[in-house]
Amino acid sequence: MSRILDQRILLLVISFSASVQSTKVLSKWKKCGDPECEKAMSRVQATTDYLGPDCRYLNFKTGEEIIVYSKLSRENENLWTGSKGKDFGYFPRDAVEVEEVLIGEEVEVLTKETDFLCLNEDKYNFE
What we know:
By secondary structure, this protein is an alpha+beta fold. The chain has one helix spanning about 1-20, and strands at about 30, 40-45, 65-75, 80-85, 85-90, 95-100, 105-110, 120, 125. It is globular, with a radius of gyration of 17 Å.
């Protein structure tokens, strides 16, 4: 009986740590094309296939075009945010090559907690 209880507790701990990880703030700052982060910053092309670790990340294949809307800064400068069709999410900057810069100057703004939530089927996934 105690063995089953131990297994259930372990599963609960694993489940809790996975949900904390997927809502983790990746950076307190980001760079955008405008203060609201609505302007597209650049157009990039994937140089490699990428499959992200959770639903906050953008998955893509080599050669696909991505529009970049923000770049995390300070603590985590290697992640950019962009869209490919209806899909939106984070991806590593070294997985793409910039084809066209669409803005003249970047603006650094604070991130929001909602920047790091999963957006599934037009609903926020609060874990």
